[in-house]
Design goal:
There is one protein chain. By secondary structure, the protein is an all-alpha fold. The chain contains 8 helices and no strands. Among the domains are: about 70 residues, no CATH class; about 50 residues, no CATH class. Helix 2 crosses helix 4.
Amino acid sequence: MATIAAHLSVDSLRERYVSSSNAREARHFHAIWLLAKGHTLGEVAEMTSFGQRWIEQLAARYNAEGPESLGDLRRRNGASATVLKPELLDKLRLRVKEPPGDGGLWTSAKIAAFLACELGLEKVAVQRGWEALKACGMSIQAPRPKNPKSASPQEAAAFKKTSKTPSRRKPRNIQSGRSRSSPATNTGSA
């Protein structure tokens, strides 16, 4: 059985587990809460689907640093943005107001190429282009493609004039005949 430091009470750990909006943080608090309640590492591993070694590491991290050490620490690692800096996003907002160099639509790949050019890099991942568009408050949209074999507006109008209109008559109901089953039987007792 692992010993859990009393940074938070058992009830507070449960509350943090239940109320967390971040799934990773909720799972970490769940594991610590179960340990604080007195469950063994094996039981907690079985209930949370974490490995025992990972649960030991979580418990050690929680005991040493407290509740702030749980959850996805990559988001709060203190590193500044390397690609999507505010100045670069401002330049991007100005640039996307005009069409791209090839005259088409802005795509994630074109945004990534713009970012690479601005940063003096050979290449930037297409995913960063999508993230940059999202960071600028834009959404990726494309018009619905037109069928190359579709009719011209004149051909469509001519087809409408010559096509038959459906009949406005109601379809006849199919009459069902009388049932041809055996005669009715009395189920009452005599």
